[in-house]
Prior knowledge:
The protein is mostly helical and 94 residues long. It has one domain (2-92): Serine Threonine Protein Phosphatase 5, Tetratricopeptide repeat. It is built from 6 helices and no strands. It has helices at 2-5, 10-22, 26-40, 45-57, 61-77, 81-92. Helix 2 (10-22) runs antiparallel to helix 3 (26-40). The radius of gyration is 13 Å and the shape is globular. The relative contact order is 0.12.
Amino acid sequence: xxxxxxxxxxxxxxxxxxxxxxxxxxxxxxxxxxxxxxxxxxxxxxxxxxxxxxxxxxxxxxxxxxxxxxxxxxxxxxxxxxxxxxxxxxxxxx
Length: 94
């Protein structure tokens, strides 16, 4: 519904992607994460974090690492050190 109101609302795409993952609709989820990246010009750390986790669980560890590293950087740049540290901890476990 949110996408019908505003189809370029990045948070709606990210939440939809997360829901699609839970439903096992992985290709559609990946497309939504990528759409969010496109809309935000890859400057939305929550999407990078979620997409990185998705990629890791999908077995694409190289790309997952890139997304998670970017999420860490973006969270830090936005002054959200708590989230940045959580993602750093996640990266250590890869």
